[in-house]
Amino acid sequence: MAAFEYRQAEEIREAFAKHGVRYLFLGKSAAILLGYPDTTQDADLYPEKSEANGKAMVAALRELGFELTEAEAAEVVRGKDFIQLKNGPFDLDLIFAPDGIERFSDAWSRRVMMEGFPVCHIDDIIASKQAANRAKDRESLDRLRAFRTWWLAERN
Questions:
Q1: What are the pLDDT digits (tens) for 71-103?
Q2: Within a domain: residue 61?
């Protein structure tokens, strides 16, 4: 599996904007867009959970080249908590209920726009990784926290 590339993030941004999808980049892919020096195998997206947004997302995903079954499309429309897509041009995780983030509207209000990308704030990325409490997330928390310190200083 190849690493997720900036070009793919651009493709998501363009297709989702065209269809009016509300979403945030989350996880390591979001941290990378903020400047975190690492790689990831997939993009993690935190979409707003609504039927209209889900329908728009299905159209955008199909336009991107994801071959969604009707069952997968229905899961997107209803906002299933976690959907892993490996049937397209790159791997994509849709996380409608990320650990450590209470509501999409809260994360949206804290979002950071980076070159037109709606990205979760570094504090939300860290909170989500901490709450997920997976071994790979625990291993990256110290580096993410150090990056947070640098990132916040650079923004001021």
A1: 999 999 999 999 999 999 999 999 999 999 999
A2: yes
